[in-house]
Automatic annotation (TrEMBL):
GO terms for cellular component: membrane. Pfam families: ABC_tran (PF00005). Residues 1-23 are annotated as: Disordered. PANTHER family: ABC TRANSPORTER I FAMILY MEMBER 17. This is Phosphate ABC transporter ATP-binding protein. SUPFAM superfamilies: P-loop containing nucleoside triphosphate hydrolases (SSF52540). Residues 27-275 form the ABC transporter domain. One of its GO terms (biological process) is phosphate ion transmembrane transport. Transmembrane segments: none annotated.
Length: 280
């Protein structure tokens, strides 16, 4: 199979003036405790996810990684039984501040899910700009075209779809659909992109393409990824956090820090066992 060539330079943005409160942001979780009903799933988890970096969240199944990720853009509260304590700061501003709108957090902190979820009957072009309606952004035709191209270039998909932008998003391969979802997330100019096992449904070639895309994007948007794939965490992330929920206890972060150091010389025996495939 031919490996697609990635990332022609992005076209001149339709509006690339620096805007205050835009660009990659540092996300800081402080003392996050989370419950589903009476079941406590996280216990005072604190983590700083640096701007313009890729942070990987690793750990065995059920230790609360996805819950933590969903707390970072206020999706946890969509579950009726869910509750949480603690703070999430986006460049120092609490996203749970009651004065702030929920949509502000979701706009600044985008999410890509495990299973690619483009609108299947909608064209590739319309998929990319689908989020703009939700944020109330109106663009003229020419600006829209530039934005579509910019996001598809950044999502690593432009060269493969530039001649069929009117074809349905559902006609793309799984890996292409996932990159379309990344492009759709980028269209609303998030400052942070959360990715929940974005490659778990993809073959190794598509996985590597997404990983390259992530690395290229990291200068423009802070990335936080949940992954079960240790090689992937080692390949793509700058910093890493190892979550663990010992039997019957809520999830905690056992160790976090520079990915290379954590994989080469973990400080905690449990981290060493996990990254070396001895459990989980
Ligand atoms: N909607 C929900 N309602 C009730 N309990 C939930 C819900 N979502 C998750 N949980 C529970 O919260 C705990 C943490 O789940 P979570 O999905 O965050 O873990 P995870 O580390 O991401 O797991 P995996 O790696 O398998 O995806 C688990 O015990 C799970 O059963």
């Amino acid at each position: 199979m031919t490996q697609p060539t990635l990332h022609a330079p992005a076209p001149t943005s339709y509006d690339d003036r620096p805007v205050p409160g835009t660009g990659p942001a540092t996300l800081e979780a402080r003392d996050i405790t989370a419950w589903f009903g009476s079941h406590q799933v996280l216990d005072r988890v604190s983590l700083t996810m640096p701007a313009s970096g890729i942070t990987a969240l690793i750990g065995p199944s059920g230790c609360g990684k996805s819950t933590f990720l969903r707390i970072l853009n206020r999706m946890h509260e969509l579950v009726p039984s869910a509750a949480l304590a603690g703070e999430v700061l986006l460049d120092g501003e609490d996203i749970y501040d009651p004065q702030r709108k929920l949509t502000d957090a979701r706009r600044a902190i985008g999410m890509v899910f495990q299973k690619p979820n483009p609108f299947p009957a909608m064209s590739i072009r319309e998929n990319v700009v689908a989020g703009l309606r939700l944020t109330g952004t109106r663009l003229g035709k020419a600006d829209k075209e530039l934005l579509v191209e910019e996001c598809l270039v950044r999502g690593g998909l432009w060269k493969e779809v530039k001649d069929r932008l009117d074809s349905p998003g559902g006609g793309l391969s799984g890996g292409q659909q996932q990159r379309l979802c990344i492009a759709r997330s980028l269209a609303i100019k998030p400052r942070v992109l959360l990715m929940d096992e974005p490659c778990s449904a993809l073959d190794p070639t598509s996985t590597r393409v997404i990983e390259e895309t992530m690395k290229d994007l990291a200068q423009q948007v802070t990335i936080v990824i949940v992954t079960h794939n240790m090689q992937q965490a080692a390949r793509v992330s700058d910093t890493c956090a190892f979550f663990l929920a010992s039997q019957g206890t809520p999830g905690v972060i056992v160790e976090h820090g520079d990915t290379e150091a954590m994989f080469a010389s973990p400080r905690d025996q449990r981290t060493s066992d996990y990254v070396n495939g001895r459990f989980g």
